[in-house]
Write a structure and sequence with these properties.
Distance between the termini: 19 Å
Mean pLDDT: 88
Strand order of the largest sheet: 6-7-8-3-9-10
Largest sheet: 6 strands, mixed
Strand content: 25-35%
CATH class: Alpha Beta
CATH architecture: 3-Layer(aba) Sandwich
Shape: globular
CATH superfamily: P-loop containing nucleotide triphosphate hydrolases
Radius of gyration: 18 Å
Number of helices: 7
Structural class: alpha/beta
């Protein structure tokens, strides 16, 4: 495994809504956080703690009100939408509780989608990589099946392969096992762990499940828009 390197750094990150209005509210209050390539971390906290807001900022889907977010060493706060979209496409993979596969496309085509959005028509090389990822998640024989021909666990594994097709340096997983039975959830989690270890891809898992958080290497607790603890396990 490669030597750990900095993937993500947040410095004094703040996020407010309704700025300048009587109902202005600050949701995140000066977040400092660093993730390295070896990190497999859980982000936990009660509903309303700011987890979704923080995830949107880390995923470059929204901009902070103050502070700075470095991705791969690059400051991002002053980037325009086009630059932020390009950086997100190169560096970040997303896995959600609801896998959001496109029903008209096969499993292979769904896996290829992030690469195609960024680069256009797939090359033979990227098709081989996508097939290899399906093999990695145990679905090489299902490449030509549509989502409605797959089980929930199989669809989530396709979603993981899709998140990894661009070889991201950061994988954001929002309740990735929330809709799965215990055994399938364990299999999906093991896949995330394997990619973290083999590819040096930092993983940040947002979860309400304390058992899932406990199997991560690190648990970051967010309460009322502030990090109240950041514990490493083992």
């Amino acid at each position: 495994m490669p030597e750990p390197r900095e993937v993500l750094r947040l410095e004094g990150l703040r996020k407010s809504y309704n700025i300048g209005k009587p109902n202005e509210v600050e949701v995140l209050h000066g977040i400092d956080l660093r993730l390295d390539s070896a990190d497999f971390a859980a982000l936990v906290g009660p509903s309303g703690s700011g987890k979704s807001t923080l995830l949107n900022l880390v995923g470059l889907l929204d901009s902070p009100t103050a502070g700075e977010l470095y991705l791969g060493g690059q400051p991002t706060r002053e980037m325009d939408d086009e630059a932020r979209t390009a950086l997100r496409g190169r560096h970040i993979g997303f896995v959600f509780q609801f896998h959001h596969l496109i029903g008209a496309f096969t499993a292979l085509e769904n896996v290829l989608m992030p690469w195609m959005v960024a680069n256009g028509k797939p090359t033979p090389e990227i098709v081989d990589i996508a097939r290899g990822l399906l093999a990695d998640v145990g679905l090489e024989k299902f490449a030509d099946r549509r989502p409605d021909q797959l089980s929930g666990g199989q669809q989530q594994r396709v979603a993981i392969a899709r998140a990894l097709v661009t070889r991201p340096s950061l994988l954001l997983a929002d309740e990735p096992t929330g809709n799965l039975d215990t055994r399938t959830a364990a299999d999906v989690f093991a896949l995330l762990r394997r990619f973290n270890e083999q590819s040096g891809c930092a993983v940040l898992v947002v979860t309400h499940d304390p058992r899932l958080a406990g199997t991560c290497d690190r648990t970051i607790s967010l309460v009322d828009g502030a990090i109240v603890s950041d514990k490493r396990h083992g």
